[in-house]
Specification:
Blueprint: H1 11-15, H2 53-57, E1 67-68, H3 79-94, H4 96-119, E2 124-128, H5 131-141, E3 149-153, H6 158-171, E4 174-178, H7 189-199, E5 204-210, H8 222-233, E6 243-247, H9 259-262, E7 266-270, E8 282-286, H10 288-291, H11 303-310, H12 330-333, H13 336-346, H14 348-367, E9 372-374, E10 386-391, H15 396-405, E11 408-409, E12 411-412, E13 420-423, H16 430-443
Length: 444
């Protein structure tokens, strides 16, 4: 199976009634003019040294007076991404249609090349604007028949629950939820897998889960879940198999795993969180077999579909491309190449190790504080970069406000119950972890 990207189509060719169709294939992408200058040419950012985490931090324009433990909510991109955005914006403002026609096919292919290097394996990747958009497109477009069921969990975020609720409201599909663990701090792999598998029935066609729970910081053992589902699917017809669909946004860019390691059928993520990509970007990856069970809910801008609409052909031969058509914020979308390249230069394994190291130190420090209860598991096997805790006598919102006065940026989980939440990432340092622990100590 070949990696493919969003079906980027030149509108100039479409309106000229050209009938070539298909997703953007990797390999042999021509260089585009007006590539952004190197970061050293803008603001004196030093060359990227993957071995120097302080140097990596220098590539971000974040306020140095603040320890940013909330970057996972909405990230600030590194210098190379900012430079790319600025360059594309300048060129689009100068001559928008010419620049669009000259770049849209090649730029999307370049993004897909870098994404393929980062994710590894094979499959098809399509671009979206956010995790929520990706989940809505996926759960709205997967083919379900009367009587089919969707299994999700009580721990998933609003975007998954609401996408599935709207699908059930529209088509009468039954959506069921299971609880995977009682105490998040003590959650274990066997407990999680057993609880999920127990919820699968012969009618289950979709299993919708989240890689890292933003409510508790629990990281699901996706590979073990995939293996268990493979056993249940073994004797099912292809159209009856339960597809494993993963909201991966808090693992993507923070954990050293891609679709091949996870074993999932679909992986959905925004790119403006742990990947530190441009704002308003996201992606949906799926295996070739899984995409066969998807029908687009937004018209794609592929040549075959538009050519058929114009009366010049029969339409797509086979599956219609899943990617939404229309115009996009191309200055941000095309800068995704630099975001993936930045992480490829750092190394997915090294980023994950750094994130886990800082998270372990943060959890260890918080666990020693009186009046603080860790919600996130200590074990790195069932956690990632998110660290949630509860402070006796202090609401999460009050704690966030108080920490900010100490130069610590944190967040409160948007769930009921809500917890204080901090996320360690490549923009943090061990010294900032110590600062955060000291600031929480002052509140507890």
């Amino acid at each position: 199976m070949a990696w493919t990207g969003e079906t980027a189509v030149s509108r100039r060719l479409v309106l000229g009634a050209t009938a070539a169709a298909g997703a953007v294939a990797l390999g042999g992408v021509a260089a585009c003019d007006d590539d952004p200058p190197k970061p050293t040419e803008r603001g004196g950012v030093p060359p990227l040294d993957p071995q120097d985490w302080d140097g990596v931090r220098a590539h971000f324009a974040l306020d140095p007076a603040v320890a940013h433990f909330d970057a996972f909510v909405f990230a600030s991109p590194p210098a190379a991404v900012r430079a790319a955005i600025e360059n594309h914006r300048t060129q689009l403002d100068r001559d928008p249609l010419t620049y669009l026609h000259a770049n849209e096919v090649a730029r999307d292919a370049q993004i897909t090349q870098e994404a393929a290097r980062y994710l590894g394996g094979s499959g098809e990747l399509y671009l979206t604007d956010s995790t929520t958009m990706g989940l809505g497109l996926l759960y709205g477009g997967l083919v379900l028949r009367p009587g089919d069921e969707v299994l999700t969990t009580e721990h998933d975020f609003y975007s998954t629950h609401e996408s599935l609720r709207l699908r059930a409201l529209r088509d009468g599909v039954k959506v069921r939820r299971v609880r995977l663990y009682q105490d998040p701090a003590a959650a274990g792999i066997d407990e999680i897998v057993a609880a999920l598998v127990a919820g699968v029935t012969p009618k289950t066609r979709i299993v919708a889960v989240t890689w890292v729970h933003s409510s508790t910081g629990v990281r699901l053992p996706i590979r073990e879940i995939a293996t268990a589902l493979a056993g249940l699917n073994r004797d099912r017809a292809p159209q009856d198999r339960a597809l494993l669909c993963v909201d991966g946004v808090h693992g993507f860019g923070a954990v050293d795993a891609g679709p091949a390691e996870l074993g999932c059928d679909f992986l959905v993520s925004g790119c403006h969180k742990w990947l530190f990509g441009p704002r308003g970007t996201g992606m949906v990856w799926g295996s070739e077999a899984a995409w066969q069970r998807f029908q687009p809910v937004i018209p794609p801008f592929d040549n075959a579909s538009i050519g058929a609409w114009l009366g010049f052909g029969p339409g797509p031969a086979g599956r219609v491309p899943p990617s939404p058509g229309g115009y996009h914020a191309f200055e941000h979308r095309w800068a995704l190449r630099e975001a993936f390249a930045f992480h490829n230069a750092l190394g997915r394994d090294r980023v994950a190790a750094r994130t886990a190291q800082l998270a372990a130190a943060l959890k260890a420090g918080l666990a020693e504080l009186p009046g603080v209860r860790l919600i996130t598991p200590r074990s790195p096997r069932v956690s990632a970069g998110l660290v949630c805790c509860e402070l006796a006598g202090t609401t999460p919102e009050a704690a966030v406000r108080a920490l900010r006065t100490s130069g610590i940026a944190a967040s409160a989980t948007p769930y009921n119950p809500s917890y204080l939440r901090l996320g360690t990432s490549i923009v943090n340092s061990p010294a900032e972890v110590d600062r955060a622990v000291a600031a929480v100590r002052a509140l507890s």
